[in-house]
């Protein structure tokens, strides 16, 4: 994926692009508007030239999130842009992005006149940064949910220090101090683990793997927390 973002104003349109790994946004250029149809065609060409696979357009709204006159004007432009390109177009809340851009340039000592040539591109980068952060969070949540479903439906095979395979079933997943933990029970009798013994693993940050926890005190804290939460639910 490659993302291009537009901060659409009445006189200027800021352009930003994602880095090759889609981890952050880079201010690119400022387009000065010439006419509605010409502007739409120009932005469609910019997105294509930059190899965009998705276009992110800032959508201006009031402080409380309600729509304003500028919101409708921008929606009309975005609708025309969607018709002019086969690249998918999405909208992203642009509240405070221009204000943040101005504050950044002022802190760098840039004059008011020079800021006009840079503030819109930086605002577009702020819009894109917000969108990329949201995508990352959604992806992590999805992977974590998929792993939980997989654990719930299937046996988990773990290998002990002697190379023996032990099958576990998921008891539950709990979150303690911002970290998720999987609580497992042995699925079959074995010499190493008692029938009712709970084994706890930490879910990796990306939600795709189980990680061992060596801190015995932390394991007890997690289990005590899980028990208290379970008692409250009951």
Features:
234 residues; alpha+beta; Nucleotidyltransferase, domain 5; five-stranded mixed beta sheet; five-stranded antiparallel beta sheet; 42% helix; 28% strand
Average predicted confidence as pLDDT: 82
Q: Level of helix content?
A: 40-55%
Number of strands: 10
What is the H/E order?
EEEHEHEHHHEEEEEH
Find the structural class using helix and strand composition.
alpha+beta
Model regions low in confidence, pLDDT < 50 over at least 5 residues: none
CATH class wording of the largest domain: Alpha Beta
Biggest sheet details? 5 strands, mixed
From the spread of the alpha carbons, the general shape counts as: elongated
Please state roughly what percent of the residues sit in beta strands, choosing from under 5%, 5-15%, 15-25%, 25-35%, 35-45% or over 45%. 25-35%
CATH architecture of the largest domain: 2-Layer Sandwich
Describe this structure in words.
The chain is an alpha+beta fold. It has two domains: 138 residues, Nucleotidyltransferase, domain 5; 80 residues, no CATH class. It is 42% helix and 28% strand. It is built from six helices and ten strands. The strands form two sheets. A five-stranded mixed sheet has the order 3-2-1-4-5, with helices on both faces. α1 crosses α2 and α3 packs across α5. The radius of gyration is 25 Å and the shape is elongated. It starts with a strand and ends with a helix. The mean pLDDT is 82.
What's a concise summary of this model?
By secondary structure, this protein is α+β, with helices and mostly antiparallel strands.
